[in-house]
Amino acid sequence: MSFDAEKIIEYSNKNPKPASTTFAYGTAGFRTVGDTLGSTVFRCGLLAALRSQSKNGQVIGVMITASHNHERDNGVKLVDPMGEMLQQSWEAYCTDVANAQTSEELVETLSHIAQEERIDLTIKPRVAYARDTRPSGPMLQAALEDGLAALDVEASNFGIVTTPQLHYFVRCLNTQGTAASYGEPTEAGYNAKYGQAFLRLVSGRETPSKLFIDAANGVGAPQVLKLAQAINSPYFDIEVRNSDTQTLGKLNIGCGADHVKSNQRPPAGVSLVPGSRYCSFDGDADRLVYYYGDEHGAFHLLDGDKISTLVATYLRDLVATAGIEDLQVGVVQTAYANGNSTSYIKDTLKLPTVFAKTGVKHLHHEAEKMNIGVYFEANGHGTVLFNPSAVAKLRAVVPETPAQADAVERLWALRDLINESVGDAMSDMLLVETILICKGWTLAQWNEAYTDLPSRLLKVVVNDRTIFKTTNAEQTLTAPHGLQDIVDSLVAKFPRGRSFVRPSGTEDAVRVYAEAATRRDCDQLAYAVAGAVFDKAGGRGERPAEFL
Ligand code: G16
């Protein structure tokens, strides 16, 4: 059995590759200007079919989104059967397929992959797909559907949903009717599963004040309203801001989790009232940050690190109350984690912590190695995983006291509340709300655990970001030659200084992170490093302004 090469060529000729563009599968799939991605999305449809056949016909997901990026960008990524990111060894296949110059070369590349992976091409491939609200979405969806038609895929279109919802649907489809059944693969099923777990955990407690949600003018806006409708309880009293998914040019602009985290200020359309509670999603609702304003007008951010420490503390305490021995809660972070969060996890919580490269796909795999792995990037992207040994230990507990029984029941309910397939702003928000309600905490009380070191994240646009190479969980540059020495000499000038430089895998930019003991030192360090990157590595546009 081989491909119907003629059919693939016919569809491929409808979706030609732009000759001069090279595509790369980055931190979260392919991402670039949406109008240029037709051939890539078409080819991802073909590859998703092969991946499904290689997994014995299990459903593979394809999500068309560029998440936090500008509206003109779009992207595509593949989702593996348990709802996790595509296995990394297949990313190279994605890049090969996307860059085949002609339709004939494309067929050859597909045949090569089928041989290499010993794929049984008689298996019926199955693919589930969805997209976000971007204007290039319908055009890219049509290209994807061409790819699916070219290989006679049994396809399910989930419409316009959040990225984590698509991950959830994929896992549900592949576990239906088994002991690992994850839920109903529908929006209503998603809302019922997470909504019911939330109500199980909070009922009987005091109801919280209203939560204002900045939905980044993205797909999270309609979806969180549906979730609230399903929950239909004063425990989830929300008001959604930045919910305009219809007007062009609004997605992620001046709002959303990336804007709030990077600029450390509230989003457009939200004026902070002391005592009120706020959070932001990003454009496809896989990131979450909280924040509030105090009576002196100061802005306080509760980012992914704060979420991670809140959740890890809560789980650690429940495990202790449940009296489960040898059940370790661990935390996975990236180099962007605030230095004081890492010290807090190690020195105060006394929990093991490890560092992974940027990208939830890297953190997820580290978290899988822990009994209960809490992983969050500082940008608010993350979740919690209970590995099989944790589940077995939980199952084996015979509670001897009501407190123990309650803790065990809460751990089970938390597992139902958490979207283990991927970081999910809506499920994470319900998790944070649960913990705050159970502790009776305000955002200010949550924020008291530790104080962040001042930090700054900058972007530098350069001629070619692929010349940047890193090692040591992306904290040390190995190229361009000599740049790391300059970074080191700058860092040495500032007490508690730390800085690193890495190429973004989702945007055409190089990221510069810096932290130091004071705000002034931190900003001086960040701008000095950004200036060095600009000067030594072909900066484009405006040189990062010196901080005075
Ligand atoms: C994606 C990834 C995240 C990553 C972020 C930025 O987020 O899923 O894990 O932190 O990109 O990556 P980079 O610094 O390489 O650009 P999202 O929310 O855009 O899907």
From TrEMBL:
Cofactor: how bound: Binds 1 Mg(2+) ion per subunit.
Domain of life: Eukaryota
Isomerase in keyword set: yes
EC numbers for this chain: 5.4.2.3
Cofactor(s) named in the record: Mg(2+)
Classification via InterPro entries: A-D-PHexomutase_a/b/a-I, A-D-PHexomutase_a/b/a-I/II/III, A-D-PHexomutase_C, A-D-PHexomutase_C_sf, AMG1_II, AMG1_III, PAGM
Reaction equations catalysed: N-acetyl-alpha-D-glucosamine 1-phosphate = N-acetyl-D-glucosamine 6-phosphate
Hydrolase in keyword set: no
Binding site for substrate: E377, A378, N379, R502, P503, S504, G505, T506, R511
Residue ranges annotated for the Phosphoacetylglucosamine mutase AMG1 domain, each copy included: 207-289, 303-441
Keyword annotations: Carbohydrate metabolism, Cell wall biogenesis/degradation, Isomerase, Magnesium, Metal-binding, Phosphoprotein
Active site: S67 (phosphoserine intermediate)
Domain Alpha-D-phosphohexomutase alpha/beta/alpha intervals: 60-92, 100-177
Pathway assignment: Nucleotide-sugar biosynthesis; UDP-N-acetyl-alpha-D-glucosamine biosynthesis; N-acetyl-alpha-D-glucosamine 1-phosphate from alpha-D-glucosamine 6-phosphate (route I): step 2/2
PANTHER family: PHOSPHOACETYLGLUCOSAMINE MUTASE (PTHR45955)
Protein family per UniProt: Belongs to the phosphohexose mutase family.
Identification of the protein by name: Phosphoacetylglucosamine mutase
Source organism per UniProt: Coemansia asiatica
